[in-house]
Amino acid sequence: MVMSDVQLNMLDGVDGLNAVGVFDSISPSKKEKSKSDKHLELLKVVFAILCGLLIVEAVSYKMIIPLTRYPKIIVKGNVNYSEQEIAQVLYSNQTGSWFKFNTAYSASLLSALPAVESVCVEKHFPDTISVSIVEREPVALTFVNVGQSCVAVQIDRNGVLFSANAGSPISDRTIPIVSGLPVEHLTNGMRIPQKYRGLIEKISTLRKLPQKYFAAISEICVVPKEYGNYELVFYPVGLHTKILADRFLSEEALQYMMVALDVVKSLDNPVSVIDLRYGSVSIVQTAGGNF
After folding, report:
1. Which of 1, 75, 209, 221 could form a disulfide with 83 if both were Cys (CB 3.0 to 4.6 A apart)?
2. How far is CA 70 from CA 66, 100, 195, in A?
């Protein structure tokens, strides 16, 4: 019994030593692993914070800051007005950020420009304003008294009178001068009287033909007649001749006019009048008599 007890005690001691040795050898590695995991978690947190700050900064520069400053303006369709002139109209009458920019008010400002027929103003996130302009296209010219001087004014196909800006001189020879219109003063958006708008519409249509008839005409004069009617007098380029025509301008009448002008140029005696009225062509020479 004594020997067995001693042996058991010895075995218990060995097992105890082994157990203590095993725990002592395992415990440091677990502690190191735990510290490594904590460091990794800390790095993840720091990385996530940095990424969040970068995202906030990117959003701020891309969205928040552009929303709080004055927007960029992009203009399309402008011919007579430069992009700087359009932007100046908007900048001088409206201040604030993109968020506060009033597109309807801006469109009304630009619509007040004489040569602007229509305009569309749109906001594009985050900091851009696009302006699409349709400018008036002149189809005829006339002269209006402004103060002490007589100035040339353009007329579009709808009979609206407008003056272009100083940087857009009129050089198209196919745009005829129409005189005799009862226009005594000029205001923005003003239109010629209703009964003359058909003439302007017809001129607009004839100008689109391949034959440039109006390049041979220096002036079209409107001559009032009784009962509210009117007739037309054409003054051809380079000739001291006037051509009488009725109010119903047509391509056929212009073709007759061109043929008559060719005949006049071949005559020895100068011609004072070519009459295209009443469905016939008659020529009056300066020396007298009908031709």
Report:
1. 75
2. 8, 9, 47
